[in-house]
């Protein structure tokens, strides 16, 4: 409440347009930009083949996309923001939500996951966390499913009122932390793996409920004509349908982030190494702490010097008296 939220820290913009934009476009659907981004698969295929042959670890495209998303959010921290009631917040952690179909049948039930990350994980650690979350959700209901199951018991007329109350509490920053942690709509990025159902990428809407500002749809790879050094030839391409909230980042920041993200798919070896987050706010806080520490040291040294001067004066007086 009053600008404080358990899942984010309020950002104060100096740029007038960035400050006003969330008030011109009140909902995420108002401010959503969309791009179909093609990713070449040859380098990914070579890396996946290498890991399978040398290390016996089987990776797939979803592992690669998820690992690159986590690393991108760690590097480009402005992407991990959200807007509530015209105010922009920096998210306190990284999380990815995705929907998994428990069985590939028309009547097969779906389950929703929300996996937390620090941003410092390697691609091996990201794969392990995702696989564990999927396995656990198939075997038993996770926290998200338990909350949804409880809400589904409520009569329809009461459910509408309950959801409206939750929306109001969320807008005021009073939604309980436990519900935010369980909610798949309060997440950094929402991902849907359409390749698993043999579907191409789509432009998915962004939910107005919650705080998700980026939605990524991973499509099925296909061969299409590509241009390499003035030569047109068939290339293996995977489309990513990306929908993003433009209110907390300008176009330049999004475009540069997209280029960095694209380079990651061609350099997956870099994701085998852990990443160290250098948060500007943490650095500033450390500088403040060191300044306070040095000030205390100066005061202590001054006191010690004064004591030493007094002692020396007293010693001189004793010597003069003798």
Descriptive notes:
It contains nine helices and ten strands. Strands 2, 5, 6, 7, 8, 9 and 10 form a seven-stranded mixed sheet that branches. The chain has a three-stranded antiparallel sheet with strand order 1-4-3, with no helix packed on it. It starts with 7 loop residues before the first strand and ends with a helix. α3 crosses α4 and α3 packs across α8. About 4% of the residues have low confidence. It folds into two domains: 270 residues, 2-Layer Sandwich (Chloramphenicol Acetyltransferase), CATH 3.30.559; 45 residues. The chain is an alpha+beta fold and 322 residues long.
Question: Could you estimate the helical fraction of the residues in percent?
Answer: 40-55%
The total count of helices amounts to: 9
Low-confidence stretches: 280-293
Average pLDDT taken over every residue: 84
Q: How many distinct beta strands?
A: 10
- The appropriate CATH architecture of the largest domain is 2-Layer Sandwich
Topology:
Blueprint: E1 8-11, H1 16-24, E2 32-40, H2 42-54, H3 61-75, E3 81-84, E4 87-91, E5 94-101, E6 110-117, H4 123-139, H5 143-153, H6 156-171, H7 177-182, E7 189-193, E8 214-218, E9 222-228, E10 231-245, H8 251-265, H9 280-321
Parallel strand pairs: 5-7, 7-8
Antiparallel strand pairs: 1-4, 2-10, 3-4, 5-6, 8-10, 9-10
């Amino acid at each position: 409440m009053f600008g404080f939220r358990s899942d984010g820290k309020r950002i104060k913009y100096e740029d007038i347009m960035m400050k006003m934009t969330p008030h011109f476009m009140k909902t995420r659907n108002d401010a959503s930009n969309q791009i179909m981004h093609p990713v070449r698969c040859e380098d990914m295929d070579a890396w996946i083949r290498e890991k399978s042959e040398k290390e016996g670890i089987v990776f797939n495209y979803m592992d690669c996309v998820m690992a690159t998303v986590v690393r991108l959010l760690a590097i480009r921290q402005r992407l991990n923001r959200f807007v509530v009631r015209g105010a922009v917040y920096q998210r306190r952690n990284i999380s990815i939500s995705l929907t998994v179909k428990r069985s590939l049948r028309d009547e097969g039930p779906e389950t929703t996951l929300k996996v937390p990350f620090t941003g410092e994980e390697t691609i091996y650690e990201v794969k392990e966390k995702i696989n564990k979350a999927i396995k656990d959700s198939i075997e038993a209901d996770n926290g998200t499913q338990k909350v949804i199951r409880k809400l589904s018991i409520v009569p329809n007329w009461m459910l509408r009122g309950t959801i409206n109350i939750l929306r109001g509490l969320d807008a005021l920053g009073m939604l309980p932390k436990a519900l935010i942690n369980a909610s798949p709509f309060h997440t950094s990025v929402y991902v849907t793996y359409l390749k698993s159902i043999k579907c191409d990428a789509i432009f998915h809407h962004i939910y107005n409920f919650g705080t998700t500002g980026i939605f990524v749809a991973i499509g099925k790879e296909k061969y299409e004509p590509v241009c390499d050094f003035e030569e047109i030839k068939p290339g293996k391409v995977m489309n990513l349908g990306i929908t993003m909230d433009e209110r907390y980042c300008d176009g330049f920041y999004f475009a540069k982030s997209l280029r960095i993200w694209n380079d990651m798919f061609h350099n997956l070896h870099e994701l085998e190494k852990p990443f160290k987050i250098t948060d500007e706010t943490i650095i500033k806080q450390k500088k403040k702490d060191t300044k306070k520490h040095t000030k205390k040291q100066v005061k202590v040294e001054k006191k010690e010097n004064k004591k030493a001067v007094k002692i020396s004066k007293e010693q001189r007086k004793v010597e003069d008296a003798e």
